Amino acid sequence: MTCCSATTNSYLKHTFYPCLPKFPKMVPTYDPNDDEAGLKLLEDLTTNAHHIQQQVLEEILKKNAQTEYLRGFLNGRSDKEIFKEKVPVVNYEDIKAYIERIANGEPSNIISSQPIIELLTSSGTSGGLPKMMPSTAEELDRKTFFYNLLVPVMNKYVDELDKGKGMYLLFIKPEISTPSGLMARPVLTSYYKSSNFRNRPFNRYNVYTSPDETILCPDSKQSMYCQLLCGLVQRHEVLRVGAVFASAFLRAIKFLEDNWEELCSNIRKGCLSDWITDPGCRTSVSSILGKPYPELSELIECECRGKSWEGIIRKLWPKTKYIEVIVTGSMAQYIPTLEFYSGGLPLVSTMYASSECYFGINFKPLSKPSDVSYTILPNMAYFEFIPVEKDHEQVVHNVQCNGNSDQNCTSKGNEEENLETVDLVDVKLGHYYELVVTTFTGLYRYRVGDILMVTGFYNKAPQFRFVHRRNVVLSIDTDKTNEEDLLNAVKNAYTPLKPLGFLLTEYTSFADTSSIPGHYVLFWELKMKDNSDLPELDRNLMEQCCSILEESLDSVYRRCRKKDNSIGPLELRVVKHGAFDALMDFCVSQGSSVNQYKTPRCIKSEEALKILDSRVVGKFFSEKTPFWEPFKIET
Ligand code: AMP
């Protein structure tokens, strides 16, 4: 969720606003150029976590008790004492109808007293389409406040960031207009397009290498090319590099590997390639490129031509002090590759946030990725926590649903309403919880779906390690494929094989990130109905299965695959009879119970992978990119 976060220009420290001892405003104002004021504010927020949480809830209820949604539970009352008793904990499916009514033109006040100004499309999906989260003008200010607080934290640990620039590779994604005229778009696209982003502190002092026009270019290839070009031209000033997620940063490195010769040629000649046609990109990049730089081009070429790209980041941007990318959660799979390219630079995950709300800041940005914890800021929303079993596989109340899917739980009726939650300041060290938020924007007791573990407290505010997202089995970029979607895709894809007498006896999956972009791998064990010998597999037919698998996955997967090129073609590996028995033997040898053994639908262990790989009889790739278009909202 990086937004060119850290830096401060000491010479900018002039105006000041008082730090707020009593937090009369939910978005406190302070001078973002004043690191001390920022740090003091963080002290105050975390010290008064309980008090602030109570205030947040009071404020949300006071403002929204008369909305149709809350009236249905609270009968117009706004006292926080009855909130937990009367208002149910919900999943997206429970509130989807309200969101869709707003998208179709009904007034915001069915859920929020403040006008909903846009809908933020999450990477989590419902029915194959992105979930949409309401947002307000005030929420944009709250995000800006949050981003500004990242600055003093980073400056506390890394000196003199104001002496150079940040190369942050940021991109916008497609957006749609809903029937009501509200835009529906990803949270970062919304933020980058806002005046809050354009006017972010220090932007006008050119402390970022990417001109706003290149970030806002809707053509991701032109955007990437121009941002890298600007980063290379200004390489000696760059003190930190980054992107939002590790996957995006690695994609940029791959792009550089594929395009460095052309980039160098542009630098050598001092002119931009003709295929960059976006007017904003052309004007802004041309002014940075300015004139021919033959020596600079020679230096860059020399590094890029080298035998190995190990440590290339340090070589190309020699003054870089760290790489700012999220490497927690599903992004942890990219750490080894990032380490290879980075040459030992610290990997910094600054924040934990979502389309629903921004949650927490990493107060120790230089800590090892495995030690990263986020401190939840108590003024961002009202937070509750559902206790989760220690093995963090199954939420306590989900046990009877076999821990399989959220949908199973929801369909069990009113269980959700009786969920016991714990307040922010009452979570216990070492315990696991699922995050529930009540936002200023019209979400009430909403299950975000993230499982977190308490690692400590900063003053009175708990710190959490991100453990995993509930029920996600595969993720390469922002896609989040759950077990159920995978099962449906597998069922669809196996259809052409059925009439030929094939049986699909087992399947599992694996996110292969050994190359960039990563891709989904599915292992299928096939046998014939009549005998156990598999005939030669027809390549066209198997490639058709791969394509159906991709077509069946949700729209975020298909967007990553088709529009963003952030996921490579899906691969199907057919294994011989008995391969999954061998996998079971292995899992049992590792401690799984024979009676309760269920085939894992995603494997991560290298040994398990080896067991299946050694039994592969055929590998097939999807030859077509799946269909994708910006989704439509049904009226
Ligand atoms: P989205 O709704 O598409 O904005 O995605 C938000 C989700 O991304 C969160 O609920 C998390 O599951 C994941 N996420 C965001 N920030 C982090 C982080 N710092 N570490 C791990 N996962 C994250």
UniProtKB/TrEMBL annotation:
Keywords: Ligase
A molecular function (GO) term: acid-amino acid ligase activity
Ranges where the GH3 C-terminal domain occurs: 484-607
Keyword Ribosomal protein in record: no
Segments forming domain GH3 middle: 374-469
InterPro entries associated with the record: GH3 (IPR004993), GH3_C (IPR055378), GH3_M (IPR055377)
A GO cellular component entry from the record: cytoplasm
Keyword DNA-binding tagged: no
Family: Belongs to the IAA-amido conjugating enzyme family.
Name listed for the protein in its UniProt record: Indole-3-acetic acid-amido synthetase GH3.17-like
Organism from which the protein derives: Turnera subulata
Lineage: Eukaryota, Viridiplantae, Streptophyta, Embryophyta, Tracheophyta
